[in-house]
Amino acid sequence: MTENQITREAWLALFVSTVVVFLVVIDISAVNVAFPSIREDFGVTSSELSWIISGYNIVVGALLMVSGRLADSLGRRKVYLPGVAIFGIGSALCALAPSAGFLIGFRLIQAIGGSITTAAGFAVMLPEFPPAKRSTAIGIAGATGALGAVVGPAIGSLLIDLFNWQAIFWLNVPLCILVLIIGPKFLNESRDPNATGRIDLLGVVIGTAAVAFIMFAIVQSEKWGISDLRLIGLLLVGLALLPIMLKRSRTHDEPLINLKLYEYRSFRSANIGVSLWGLGFASGFLVNSLMLQDVWELPIRDVGLALVPAPLLAAAVSIATGRYADKYGHRWLLGLGCALCGLGYFAQAIFLTDNTAVWNIFVPISLISGVGVGLTVATWSSAGIADIPQQFFGVAGATYNTIRQVAYAMGISMVVALVAWGSDDVEGLANTTGIRWAWFFVAGSYLAAAVAVIATFPAGSSADRAELAKSS
User: Does the pTM of the predicted model rise above 0.85?
Assistant: First the structure.
């Protein structure tokens, strides 16, 4: 067997982990499609109901770092499989929720499982792959995620049409059970060999509180207003806790954040780029769903069909992207992908109006963004850990994904606010004015990410940089 050959065990581990990637992306895309149906069922406004998305992102963002640290210290499989179980239980509870308040609360339980699986998902699988093939593995996982984005709107819309929105959450349960059955057989245990099993508990509390306070303030900004003293107070407390957390991370033997990771230029650049990209990613899905349902008033089944082509193209592009990232590097793939995403949403803002134009304008334009998503959605993950030593996979992925989740929450909050500000409806139903403002915001976020990654990410592949480091 050659050094770069991928074993059968590696492929099986990849399969198990990508099932959960599939679930998480389904959850994001399907909930966005179900948003108007849930709002109508519970009789609440869009602003109030945004918590079913934002609350999930807050909890995932707040707990990712400690989840990654625990995975590296205690064992990735030992942490990962309970996370899958919690995600499945949370999904079942969401399906049974009797009110919007219960749904938001149960989404927080689901998010605890989501944070664990997100932090440990790649880490539990990647050690099985040779370093030169890890971008390929992540590319396949990303393609599976893009396929989930296809299945989410399509199957989700069909389930809503045939049954109700609760069926979207029931969909997660059997897949979680499948992972729990086959996971112990196909996933090998791995951990940081230098970890003591201890973590900085005070640092965990400080870091989790800092992220939670900041994200809560961001989400509440539309409802409270940016000058509200409560919002300002939460932001100040959260920001004040950050330097305390960083100081402890510099001095503690088992820190919450390993600051040495930021010595790697690729990791620093990926963190900057994904924070801008994340502002547009989840929020773009939501804006398009609101346009199709609230403005054009399409039947839910037609909404699902209209949202399928772009993610389907993204899935196909993502498969090939991992191989190119392994061979040529990440910089230009990410830069081009972000630029195409931005161009697609900018074109929607310019060309779409109140007049329904699904298949002749909306779908063709969305294919531009679909190619961009295919080039970026998995490539960001492999870029973030491209040069990181294997023993730090968990904490590196968690740190990077925390920033991405914060960006998701900020983006959702911004577009909900923009749509509401542009609406003259008391319930905040979307109109073209608010949708257009939101599209411009999404486009600007993607284009800023393109500039950032082209300007800061190192050239060449991770293998090229490793060889250069050896020879210097």
Answer: no
Find tokens 């945004």 and name the residue: 50
Task: Provide the pLDDT for residue 389.
Answer: 79
Contact yes or no for 272/448 (Cβ under 8 A):
no
- CB 122, CB 275: distance < 8 Å: no
If we measure between CA atoms, which residue out of 134, 109, 107 comes closest to residue 122? 134
Residue 425 pLDDT > 60? no
Per-residue pLDDT reduced to its tens digit, 337-367: 999 999 999 999 999 998 999 999 999 999 9
Task: Give yes or no for a contact between 213 and 408, defined as CB atoms under 8 angstroms apart.
Answer: no
Enter the tokens of residue 271: 């963190």
Q: What is the 3-state secondary structure (H, E, C) of the chain?
A: CCCCCCCHHHHHHHHHHHHHHHHHHHHHHHHHHHHHHHHHHHCCCHHHHCHHHHHHHHHHHHHHHHHHHHHHHHCHHHHHHHHHHHHHHHHHHHHCCCCHHHHHHHHHHHHHHHHHHHHHHHHHHHHHCCHHHHHHHHHHHHHHHHHHHHHHHHHHHHHHHHCCCHHHHHCHHHHHHHHHHHHHHHCCCCCCCCCCCCCCHHHHHHHHHHHHHHHHHHHHHHHHCCCCHHHHHHHHHHHHHHHHHHHHHHHCCCCCCCHHHHHCHHHHHHHHHHHHHHHHHHHHHHHHHHHHHHHCCCCHHHHHHHHCHHHHHHHHHHHHHHHHHHHHCCHHHHHHHHHHHHHHHHHHHHHCCCCCCHHHHHHHHHHHHHHHHHHHCCHHHHHHCCCCCHHHHHHHHHHHHHHHHHHHHHHHHHHHHHHHHCCCCCCCCCCHHHHHHHHHHHHHHHHHHHHHHHHHCCCCCHHHHHHHHHHC
Dist. CA 377–CA 283, nearest whole Å: 14
Q: Measure Cα distances from 95 to 145, 172, 273, 290 in Å.
A: 22, 10, 35, 22
Nearest in space to 150 (alpha carbons), one of 289, 32, 310, 287: 310
Residue 45, C-beta contacts closer than 8 angstroms, at least 6 positions apart: 39, 427, 428
Distance of CA 66 to the CA centre of its chain: 17
C-alpha pair distances (Å), 241 with each of 58, 166, 248, 255, 409: 17, 38, 11, 15, 20
Per-residue pLDDT tens digits for 182-221: 878 877 777 666 665 566 778 778 877 887 787 778 767 7
